[in-house]
Design goal:
396 residues; alpha/beta; Nucleotidyltransferase, domain 5; eight-stranded mixed β-sheet; 14 strands
Length: 396
C-alpha cells in the first residue's frame, strides 16, 4: 500500500510518498506559488532530484503534476496513479468532527464551520480537497485531524471556565493541535527508552508552537486551546491573549473586530513584538547587535514556554522525559538552554556540551538530571500515512 501525504498552504503543496509495507519514503516534493504565472516545483526520488518552473493553476493541478512525476517511465517510483491507495492530509480543525476521516461533504462542512478559528489552515485545505475529490475521484482522501490526539485528555483539560453550553453546543473547547507531531514523539520516545509508562512533555517549537503532556502514549493536556492562535507565542500569531483587550483596541485604533483578529493571526507573536522577524534565528542575530525588541520577543517566547512547561509538569506530577522537536526545538541551542535553565530543583538539568552538539536524535541532559531531556526530530507525515492506512484497512 502506497500513501501520498499532502501538506497544503494557500499557494503551496508539499508531499511525501510512502510504501507502507515497510514505511519507506519513496519520494518527496513540493510546489510553490500555485496560481501565479510561474510556479516552482521539485521532486526527489531516491538520489535523483529534478526541478521545474511552470504554471500550476490550483492544488488539483499540483497533485496531477506530482503523480505525473512519480509515474515517469524512467525515473518514477509508481507504475500508474492507481498505485496510490490514498492521499492523506494533516488536517487542522473539524470542530465537531475529529480523529481520522474519509473526506466527504460532512467533513468539509465541519471544517468550514471552523474556518474562522483556523483561517490560515482550513480554507486552503477545504478548497484543495474539493478540487481533488472532483478531479481525482478514484483516489480516497483521508483527513487526519490534529485535534484527534488530544481526545484522550480529561474534560477538566478541555472545558473553558465559561457557560457550559458553549462547550457542548458550540464546540468552544481546548481542542489542541500539532497532534501528528506529539503522537510521533509519544511513540518514538517510548521506543527509544523501552518504556510504555513514561511521563513525557513534548515541546513542538517552530513557526507554530505547542507543548503537550503525555502519559504513556496518550495526551492528557496541551498548551493550545480553541484555535491554533493560542498557547505560547508563534512566529506571527499571538498565542494567549486576553479577549477583553479587544474592545479597548477597537476604541483606541478605530479598527473593526475582524481587523484586530487579523492582526493577532498575522502580525503578532514574535514578529509583532520584535518588528524584525518571526524567525528565531533572525531575532537572535538582531538581539546580539543590541536590538531590544528582538530580545524582548525572545524573552517572551522563552518565558511563556516555561510557564506552560511548569503547568504540564504539575499535571503529570513530574516528567520522566522532556522532548524538544520542531524547527526551533531541534535547532535552537540557546532556546533549549534558556527554557531548561535554573530548573535543577525540579530535577531538570542540561549538559551544555551535549546541548551544543546535539544533532538528530540525542539525549542532552546532564548525568545528575532526574528528568531525561532529548532532541527528537518529528515525522508528522509518517503518522498521517499510518492513520490513513489503518482507516483503509478498516474498510472505511
Amino acid at each position: 500500500m502506497k500513501i501520498l501525504v499532502a501538506n497544503l498552504g494557500s499557494t503551496s503543496f508539499k508531499y511525501r510518498l510512502f510504501d507502507m509495507a515497510d514505511e519507506r519514503q519513496l519520494a518527496r516534493g513540493g510546489i510553490e506559488r500555485i496560481g501565479a504565472a510561474e510556479s516552482s516545483c521539485f521532486v526527489e526520488i531516491g538520489e535523483h532530484r529534478s526541478e521545474l518552473v511552470t504554471a500550476i493553476p490550483d492544488h488539483a493541478a499540483a497533485v496531477q503534476l506530482c503523480l505525473e512525476q512519480l509515474t515517469e517511465p524512467e525515473r518514477g517510483c509508481l507504475t500508474n496513479a492507481g498505485d496510490v491507495s490514498a492521499i492523506g492530509f494533516k488536517a487542522v480543525h473539524g470542530g465537531r468532527i475529529t480523529g481520522v476521516q474519509r473526506v466527504n461533504d460532512e467533513v468539509l462542512t465541519a471544517m468550514d464551520e471552523m474556518s474562522q478559528v483556523a483561517p490560515a489552515h482550513n480554507p486552503p485545505y477545504i478548497a484543495a480537497m474539493r478540487q481533488l475529490a472532483d478531479k481525482l475521484p478514484d483516489i480516497p482522501l483521508v483527513a487526519a485531524f490534529e485535534t484527534g490526539f488530544h481526545e484522550t485528555a480529561p474534560d477538566r483539560a478541555k472545558f473553558y471556565p465559561a457557560p457550559y453550553e458553549w462547550g457542548v453546543e458550540h464546540h468552544v473547547k481546548r481542542w489542541g493541535f500539532h497532534g501528528a507531531s506529539h503522537r510521533y514523539i509519544a511513540g518514538r520516545i517510548a521506543d527509544l527508552l523501552g518504556r510504555e509508562d513514561l511521563r513525557t512533555i513534548s515541546c513542538h517549537l517552530g513557526g507554530s508552537s505547542s507543548l503537550c503532556a503525555i502519559r504513556g502514549r496518550e495526551s492528557v493536556g496541551t498548551s493550545m486551546g480553541m484555535s491554533p492562535q493560542s498557547g505560547v507565542p508563534h512566529n506571527n500569531r499571538a498565542g494567549d491573549f486576553d479577549p477583553f483587550a479587544l474592545p479597548v483596541l477597537m476604541r483606541a485604533t478605530g479598527k473593526s473586530l475582524d481587523e484586530l483578529l487579523d492582526d493577532l493571526a498575522c502580525r503578532s507573536g514574535l514578529l509583532g513584538l520584535s518588528g524584525v522577524s518571526g524567525d528565531v534565528r533572525d531575532l537572535e542575530a538582531a538581539a546580539s547587535q543590541g536590538n531590544a525588541r528582538a530580545q524582548l520577543a525572545l524573552d517572551v517566547f522563552v518565558g511563556e514556554t516555561r510557564r506552560h512547561l511548569g503547568g504540564l509538569l504539575v499535571e503529570l506530577g513530574g516528567a520522566d522525559v522532556i522532548v524538544f522537536t520542531g524547527g526551533i526545538g531541534e535547532n535552537g541551542v540557546d532556546v533549549r538552554r534558556r527554557i531548561c535553565g535554573e530548573l535543577s530543583e525540579l530535577g531538570i538539568e542540561l549538559s551544555d556540551e551535549k546541548n551544543n552538539s546535539a544533532g538528530g536524535e540525542a539525549a542532552i541532559h546532564a548525568a545528575a538530571s532526574r528528568s531525561q531531556v532529548w532532541v527528537v526530530p518529528t515525522n508528522e507525515e509518517i503518522v498521517v500515512a499510518r492513520q490513513a492506512k489503518e482507516l483503509l484497512e478498516q474498510g472505511a
